[in-house]
């Protein structure tokens, strides 16, 4: 039976006591951070809706990765606020706590367990979820096995389940890592430059995968490859010198003269 995905999202958010009733799942307001006097994030306001797939673009050094570092607790801002739902103040939580309440992050370089099979990698990712850790030490339940199979299908690696992860192509490793994040069923997924180094075919598959996640997860994708962004984009945010320069559909931001001047026109 297929359920409405937004409905699934609301149920999950309710489990976590996350209030997304006003729409956004992520609120960033008047955020600032400087590194040795250099303003990497400058009065940034950024909102992501529950279930939305958002692309973030911007030149090198615009502050895209720094924004993700702040959301995930890796970097502490000088001022401003970052809320998950309406009530959870992320600036008061540690990096592991933020991961635990449902914010997953994919770094650029894939970090899979090379000497384990694809299946085992997904199994280990599930074990990182404390709620299932004790049961996993015994044996996988039917539901857990089903979830691994489901994720294997989503990431297109069902036929590679028994292969060692180290033998996968670069693109397949990236999908496996996204799959490992999905095992934790995050409400918000942050993905930094997922298609760097991928073939065109791998990029198309990645686009399908990310598009398939919306509704069930909120996804923020940072990417430089404009063809890729165009292929998945719903709403696009252009960051420039640590704040939002433009936001809208791909067509809107591409035709925005300020964006053309500082970014796309280069
Ligand atoms: N921990 C840090 N210490 C010092 N400077 C930093 C730190 N993190 C980021 N910066 C600086 O902040 C600015 C923004 O960097 P950031 O990595 O967020 O950019 P980006 O938009 O992700 O760029 P790219 O597209 O190249 O990945 C850069 O000038 C960078 O050198
Ligand atoms: Mg970056």
UniProtKB/TrEMBL annotation:
<feature type="domain" description="ABC transporter">
    <location>
        <begin position="26"/>
        <end position="266"/>
    </location>
</feature>
<protein>
    <submittedName>
        <fullName>Urea ABC transporter ATP-binding protein UrtD</fullName>
    </submittedName>
</protein>
<dbReference type="InterPro" id="IPR032823">
    <property type="entry name" value="BCA_ABC_TP_C"/>
</dbReference>
<dbReference type="GO" id="GO:0005524">
    <property type="term" value="F:ATP binding"/>
</dbReference>
<keyword id="KW-0813">Transport</keyword>
<dbReference type="InterPro" id="IPR027417">
    <property type="entry name" value="P-loop_NTPase"/>
</dbReference>
<dbReference type="Pfam" id="PF12399">
    <property type="entry name" value="BCA_ABC_TP_C"/>
</dbReference>
<dbReference type="InterPro" id="IPR051120">
    <property type="entry name" value="ABC_AA/LPS_Transport"/>
</dbReference>
<keyword id="KW-0067">ATP-binding</keyword>
<dbReference type="InterPro" id="IPR003439">
    <property type="entry name" value="ABC_transporter-like_ATP-bd"/>
</dbReference>
<dbReference type="Pfam" id="PF00005">
    <property type="entry name" value="ABC_tran"/>
</dbReference>
<dbReference type="InterPro" id="IPR017781">
    <property type="entry name" value="ABC_transptr_urea_ATP-bd_UrtD"/>
</dbReference>
<keyword id="KW-0547">Nucleotide-binding</keyword>
